Amino acid sequence: MKAKRLHIDFTWNGSSFASYEGFKGFIDLNYPELSEFIEEWFGEMGIIHMKTSGSTGKPKLIGLKRAHMINSAQTTASFFNLSSGSRVLLCLPLGYIAGRMMLVRAMVLGWQLDVVTPGSKPEFSNQVQYDFAAMVPLQLHNSLDSIEHIKTLIVGGGLVPNSLLEKIKKLPSRIFATYGMTETITHIAVSPLNLAAGAKESELVYQALPNVSFSVDDRSCLVIDADHVSDEVIITNDVVALHSETSFTWLARYDHVINSGGLKFFPELIEKKLDTLLKESFFISGLSDEVLGERIVMFVEGQKNDALIDRIKRHQKKYPEKLSKKEIPRDIYFLKSFQRTETDKIDRSTTVKLYLGAN
């Protein structure tokens, strides 16, 4: 990419820009939080500093190559068959990689970008047919009455609950779950979520995008080889079931795995089995136990509900093939509010530490 050059077809909320200077002035005036990013993007060094999401620790700055970000943008466009002039919705925060990569794709590929406030229910025009958009699960849940106006939607930033999967199953839009992180410059694998996207399996099987291959280390954690977006092999803390060099099923975070009575339990899988039983936010964790090593417990954000454990037990008896007795939480703790990361994900470890410190 030549310095100081914008794609001729790129627009931001209908505005086009004849020069870098004009675009930079627009950003400085309306989106000053992007000024440094834009300067780096069009700078001579070709290195862009991005902040990680903080999902697994404190957010940190890492340097990404502009060439790798361009490769990522082109891979996305090719995979989803998006050309210059595509009308695209940006409703994610511009402070993190997912939102900024939508902007990068638009600048590099010549997309017509509609930027709206990144709230839990994005407000976008029903008079426009969008070719592409990205959302988190909560935004998708709150936008079900408008999703038909988006041809292809990618969903990241958290697991999609079973209850939501059922609601999107027959929608005409193609909806995909994505797997990725700041270090991989957003998604490097996708899984279809509804019939229009080609979903067939009951569990999410992620398929690698072109030029990406997978393996696992001795912890069964995913190892990513994607030299078009990273000079180094990326070793993750994501425990997976590897199906092939290009496909896997995500199981849990390695640092979340519960060792109880000599068995390993994956909190995220248990959560998915229970998500239809609760409207409140919740998560499964392990607490120290003298007999078991760790015992499975549940933290719920909301008012105390003494009947919840009985409801879970009845659910287990009704669907023993889905939820085993050993997966039933031994204790349930109700908290007024959870700790959350800057990207509004539940900060499990901090929430548990604060609870233990208060008791």
Helix content: 10-25%
Distance between the termini: 56 Å
CATH class placement of the largest domain: Alpha Beta
Q: Can you count the beta strands? A: 19
Which structural class do the helices and strands define? alpha/beta
H-E order: EHHEEHEHEEHEHEEEEEEEEEHEEHEH
| Total number of domains | 2
Strand content: 25-35%
Radius of gyration (Å)? 22 Å
**Average pLDDT value?**
92
Number of helical runs? Answer: 9
CATH architecture of the largest domain: 3-Layer(aba) Sandwich
Approximate shape: globular
Low-confidence stretches: none
CATH topology of the largest domain: Rossmann fold
Walk me through the structure.
There is one protein chain. With 359 residues, this protein is an alpha/beta fold. The chain folds into two domains: 11-252, Rossmann fold (3-Layer(aba) Sandwich); 257-357, ANL, C-terminal domain (GMP Synthetase, Chain A, domain 3, 2-Layer Sandwich). Helices cover 24% and strands 29% of the residues. It is built from nine helices and 19 strands. It has helices at 20-30, 35-41, 66-79, 97-109, 137-142, 162-168, 267-274, 308-318, 348-357, and strands at residues 11-12, 47-51, 61-65, 87-90, 112-115, 130-135, 150-155, 174-181, 186-192, 206-208, 213-216, 221-225, 234-244, 247-253, 258-260, 263-265, 282-289, 293-301, 331-335. A twelve-stranded mixed beta sheet has the order 1-5-4-6-7-8-9-10-14-13-12-11. Helix 3 packs across helix 4. The longest helix is centred in the N-terminal third of the chain and has 14 residues, at 66-79. The radius of gyration is 22 Å and the shape is globular. The model has no long low-confidence stretch (mean pLDDT 92).
